[in-house]
Design a protein that fits this description.
By secondary structure, the chain is α/β, with parallel strands linked by helices. The protein is about 40% helix and about 10% strand. It has eight helices and five strands; from the N terminus they run E-H-E-H-E-H-H-H-E-H-E-H-H. It has a five-stranded parallel β-sheet, sandwiched between helices. Helix 1 runs parallel beside helix 7, helix 5 packs across helix 6 and helix 7 packs across helix 8. The longest helix has 15 residues. The N and C termini lie far apart (about 45 Å).
Length: about 220
């Protein structure tokens, strides 16, 4: 691929979707990469992501790449696989931690980039992320280790790392946000309105002063 091509790890949530839309607007060739792990919300998330991609379609937006990184053998009976005891709106931010999530996402994505001639991989990490695999030190060390293993020079970029979710929403308010998906306990094809991530989404829209286009299963 063109050496200026940017790969973006995208789930369908607000942060990665807005990051992807901004990259498309910049005009560089952009490859969206999604990782499928078998988590309970992924089917609905993918449906929203497909609609989002269709809404921002442009000549420089490449087809979605899907990488398979199943975690059932690692996580076992974890709530993200069983749907039991999903962290609710009153839970702490660290309740939604998925052990080693960025290790799993980035390892295969970095290798894909190296094999396909892409030298930049971006993801939508925000300021205040409390998890140990979301620090600048982790990203530098992990990229260095993987690049050494694959004789590569792929850079990990985190352009939203100094921004809050409300900041990101304000910058991306013109994106088709109705097609993003943040819920970890979906009801049919809708946000549940009760989980930790739905609460975070609602707060972000309120803090940003932007009308929330989301159809929640329960009222606020």
């Amino acid at each position: 691929m063109n050496s200026s091509t940017l790969a973006v790890l995208v789930s369908g949530g607000l942060d990665s979707a807005i990051l992807l839309a901004a990259a498309v607007r910049d005009g560089v060739p952009v490859v969206p990469i999604a990782v499928r792990s078998g988590l309970i919300w992924e089917r609905v998330e993918r449906e929203h992501l497909n609609r989002f991609l269709a809404a921002i379609a442009a000549p420089n937006l490449r087809p979605l790449v899907t990488l398979e990184v199943p975690v059932a053998d690692l996580y076992g009976a974890h709530w993200s696989l069983t749907g039991t005891w999903v962290p609710d709106a009153a839970s702490r931010d660290d309740a939604v931690y998925l052990p080693g999530r960025n290790v799993l996402l980035l390892a295969k994505a970095l290798i894909w980039c190296r094999l396909n001639g892409v030298d930049r991989l971006a993801l939508g990490v925000l300021a205040g992320n409390p998890f140990p695999d979301a620090t600048p030190e982790f990203f530098r060390a992990f990229a260095s280790a993987v690049n050494r293993a694959i004789d590569g020079a792929v850079r990990i970029e985190t352009p939203l790392a100094n921004s809050s979710k409300a900041d990101v929403l304000r910058r991306g308010r013109d994106a088709p946000l109705q097609h993003t998906f943040s819920c970890i306990d979906p009801v049919e094809n809708r946000h549940c309105g009760r989980c930790n991530k739905c609460a975070e989404r609602r707060r972000a829209f309120r803090d940003a002063g932007i009308p929330d286009p989301t159809a929640y299963d329960t009222a606020d």
